[in-house]
Amino acid sequence: MTLPAFRLERPARLADAVRILVAHGPEAMIIAGGTDVVPNLQMKLFSPRVVVDLKPLRELAGIEFTPASGLRIGAMTTLTAIMQSSLVRSKFPVLASAVGTIAGPLQRNMGTLGGNLCLETRCRWYNQSQFWRNALGGCLKLEGDVCHVAPAGKFCWAAWSGDAAPALLALDAEIEITGPAGARRMPLGDFYTNDGMSRIALARGEMVTAIHVPPRMAGRRGVYHKLRIRNSIDYPLAGVAVTMDADAQGVCREARVAVSAVNPAPLLVKEAGELLTGRRPSAELMEEIAHAAISTGKPLTTSASTPVYRREMLKLFTRRALEELWQNGRA
User: Fold this and answer.
1) How much is the average pLDDT of 83-101?
2) Is there a single domain that holds both residue 51 and residue 76?
3) Domain of residue 45, CATH code
4) How far apart are the C-alpha atoms of 263 and 286, rounded to whole Å?
5) What are phi and psi of 312, to 5 degrees?
6) Which of these, 143, 181, 286, 291, has the minimum number of CB atoms within 10 Å of its CB?
């Protein structure tokens, strides 16, 4: 489990980091907190010739909010800083809820928002030691030509297993990307390709530099529910994030539901917003939304838990989240 040989670059400026990434292309890899990248390097999932450490780029850290422009969080902001931010907890509780479930305190102290949004997809056949993979003959994602999840197909079903992304999807966030052509922003949902092999839409020389949440989402009720084997450290086996704006009578004005760890990308449950808008809470409505969630989430045998159980937990978490938000609204 030793690290492969590589040259470490620690650029002092963002422009220098972009220049290095452009020069080395696919042979370069970014490291932020290292909580995901380092174990993957130890398992020889990657063998970059150059590793670009972004820790010196202090300009990429920080949490800012204005009523006009909304929330901006730099990509190198630690997960602990986000979880402990009184601003995030009060105005964007779904994000604080989700980030608080990520790994354990040590990992949150090191891990960054940008790193969590760019996690490698995970699968029980892929995230193994090199010795284990060699005995299996590899998989479609690495060193082989068969997807062991769906052997008859030619598509990689490795699951997106992050927690911050569904919360930010539920907040209608945009992601800021910087590269040789400068900075650009795009809806967070468009950043994920829903392909287990090529998971995110970054071009050569580009990196994530910030996340933006529109001002209308400030104060929105929100919560995140996560399935995992242990209540700390573990990646999600399924996750549901819900945000809601409701009036004093409990009528939903706007809501967004997103799921994680059950597809090769975190996905917004598009039907949920249409079904919830203008309606009051009811058991029938919550069942409708729960079924919309499992229609979006398609768990396969990518983890130690069965697809049937993960699908049922998606339904349960969706109902619980909606009940919690409506009850809090009436309190």
Assistant:
1) 98
2) no
3) 3.30.43.10
4) 22
5) -65, -35
6) 181
Overall pTM surpassing 0.70 (yes/no): yes
244 and 216 assigned to the same domain: yes
Identify whether residues 195 and 46 lie together within a single domain. no
Mark whether 215 and 310 lie in a shared domain.
Answer: yes
Residues 257 and 316 in one domain: yes
Percent of the chain with pLDDT over 90: 93
Same domain, 30 and 166: no
In terms of domains, do 244 and 323 share one?
yes
Domain span including residue 23? 1-56
What contacts 24+ positions apart, CB below 8 Å, involve 23-28? 24/49, 24/50, 25/204, 25/205, 26/204, 28/52
The token pair that represents 308 in the structure block: 């049937």
Strand-by-strand arrangement of the 50-53 sheet: 7-9, 50-53, 28-31
**Helices and strands counted in the chain (H then E):** 13, 12
E strands, 86-230, where?
A: 174-179, 182-187, 207-213, 221-227
Q: Mean per-residue pLDDT for 142-154?
A: 92
Find the mean pLDDT for residues 69-90.
98
Note the helical H segments in 59-173: 79-84, 86-91, 93-99, 105-110, 113-117, 130-136, 164-170
Which of 31, 56, 81 delimits the end of a domain? 56
Chain-centroid distance of CA 9 in Å reads 26
Do the Cβ atoms of 64 and 58 come closer than 8 Å?
no
Amino acid at 22: V
Domains in the chain, number: 2
Of 93, 53, 56, 99, which Cα lies nearest the Cα of 78?
99
